[in-house]
């Protein structure tokens, strides 16, 4: 019997403040060793819900405690290395920064940026899904968390 193909399940947080800035991370791409911009995002770990995963990833990558308030849906992305991801997008609100929390390995910095600053940045996006998630949020394409069935 051959192994069954399974895409990677990931979560990503779109976090916008009162000044229309988005919380992004600059991280090191392990394939290229280049810096890229991404939403706080990462893999779903065994035993956790999608909502728990997105809160954990935000804390680990930005030092901010956050809670999910809406769902942006799921996007399929095949990375240049051939790996396929199912990326669950969430809208989150930050509660407070935990300064003593170390940033996750590979995270260079967490920063607040407007959409225009993101577009003008010399640091490329991790994937086209970063801007698509921001645009979905700005267009109001946010579903309630009840759309996430996570028993």
Task: Give the structure's gist in a few sentences.
The chain has 151 residues and is of the alpha+beta class. The protein is built from three helices and seven strands; from the N terminus they run ββββαβββαα. Helices cover 19% and strands 38% of the residues.
Characterization of this structure:
This protein has 151 residues and is α+β, with helices and mostly antiparallel strands. It has a single domain, classed as Nucleoside Triphosphate Pyrophosphohydrolase, CATH 3.90.79.10. It has helices at 50-62, 115-120, 129-138; strands at 8-14, 22-28, 35-38, 41-43, 64-78, 84-97, 107-113. The protein has a 4-stranded mixed β-sheet, with helices on both faces. The protein has a 3-stranded antiparallel β-sheet with strand order 3-2-7. The longest helix has 13 residues, at 50-62. The chain starts with 7 loop residues before the first strand and ends in a 13-residue tail after the last helix. The model has no long low-confidence stretch (mean pLDDT 96).
Question: What's the arrangement of secondary structure elements?
Answer:
Elements (H helix, E strand, L loop, with lengths): L7 E7 L7 E7 L6 E4 L2 E3 L6 H13 L1 E15 L5 E14 L9 E7 L1 H6 L8 H10 L13
Parallel strand pairs: 1-6
Antiparallel strand pairs: 1-4, 2-3, 2-7, 5-6
């Amino acid at each position: 019997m051959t192994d069954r193909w399974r895409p990677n399940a990931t979560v990503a947080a779109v976090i916008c403040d009162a000044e229309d800035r988005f919380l992004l991370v600059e991280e090191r791409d392990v394939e290229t060793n280049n810096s890229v911009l991404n939403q706080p995002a990462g893999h779903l770990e065994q035993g956790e819900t999608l909502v728990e995963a997105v809160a954990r990833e935000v804390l680990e990558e930005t030092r901010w405690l956050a809670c999910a308030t809406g769902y942006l849906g799921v996007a399929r992305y095949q990375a240049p290395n051939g790996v396929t991801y199912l990326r669950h997008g969430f809208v989150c609100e930050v509660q407070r920064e935990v300064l003593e929390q170390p940033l996750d390995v590979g995270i260079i910095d967490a920063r607040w940026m407007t959409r225009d600053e993101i577009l003008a940045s010399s640091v490329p996006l991790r994937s086209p899904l970063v801007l698509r998630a921001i645009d979905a949020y700005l267009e109001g394409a946010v579903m309630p968390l009840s759309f996430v069935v996570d028993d």
